[in-house]
Please model this.
Amino acid sequence: MDKEKFELQCIDYMTGAMSWEDSEEFKGFLDRNIEYQTQFDELVDTWKMITELEIPESSAKMDDTFFNMLNKEVQKTTKKGGWSLFLEGLAGIFKPQLTYGVLLLGLGLVIGYYMNSSANTNTIEVTASNEETDNVRQKLILTLLEQPSANQRLQGVSEANKVGDVDEMVVKALLQTLNNDSNVNVRLAAIESLTNYVNDPLVRQGLVQSIPNQESPILQITLANLMVALQEKASIEPFKQLLKEKQLDTTVKKKIENSIESII
Amino acid sequence: MLKVKSGDLDKLGLLYERHKKRLFGFFYNLGNNPSISEDLVQNVFERMLKYKESFTGEGSFPAWMFRMARNVNYDYHKKAMKENISKGISPEDVRSGVDDLLNEKIEIDGNSVLLKRALDKLPKEKKELLILSKYRDLRFGEIGEIVGCTEGAAKVRVHRALKDLRTIFLQLEIR
Model:
């Protein structure tokens, strides 16, 4: 019999964990082998000492402290009932949803951030394409202003309103329209469009110079109003010239006189 | 314990009544003095409440309990070493002084004092194993579960620990 098997069987036999047949067999084996028998006896001896190790009685104080602790714990849990239990339950139910929600939010933020940063790199492209459309639009304005149809010329003037920065050519074209166009509405629209660029000295000059060329009362009044608003002193002389003309409408005459006064 | 886990804390009182003696004995035999042993029993039950969720009901309750008790004992001694508290005057040291005065008791207690000294000289793991195996209702399978080995290995280890103990005991007796 090898050592380990003997050790196992000793323990089993000693603690009574062996079946009846096995224990009989083991007993026989011990009877036949004296050295194993002494080993086993020694073992049982030590074992007996161990099992007889005395343990003092624990004090009643231990019980007291334990039950105090338990009572406190029980009270704590019963107090916890009601609302907190309800909230805990709620948190338990919504926990996965909350996690997913937060996760989605985070994902959205990340995607948004990347999309935004990629848009930044495109700004140069965007401005370039904006410049391109402006160029095309200015060409369109010039073409439209040369059309025989008043409607299309009007369209051209309104196109001019859409352009952010017009170049000199467009301004000149608009001024030319203002001075020479046969249609009153087109000329009115040209004034309106030019008012967007009154900070440009070329535009101011052109507007002032166009005063004596105007024959329509409505245009004369519009220009007078505009000059008052701009407080353009250079316009006084052309207005005075206009006043000298005999066929001038009386209302317009009064209006211009008022305007000259308010400009001065 | 499963009832305690599901919120019926009163049942812990029952468990306490059932196991307090064994736990107390376990700590006492490991060489702690009675008042420390009582504190440690208390600690074990406090831990049970705290970690009641970790009891799955798969292993046996005593195995779970003693595993916790081992940790409590280990933690206590680690802390005691750190704080350099007097390493617990073991009960037999105190009593051996008293016993000198009571001559007739020496004969009776002599062996048990020697045995305790011999136990103290054993490595910690072997000592633990012997004390655990002392409880008849703790099967070797459970002991294996507590110390982390198979049933067979637990038996072999107990056997060898007993042998070692005897050797140490005999040496002490000769002296």
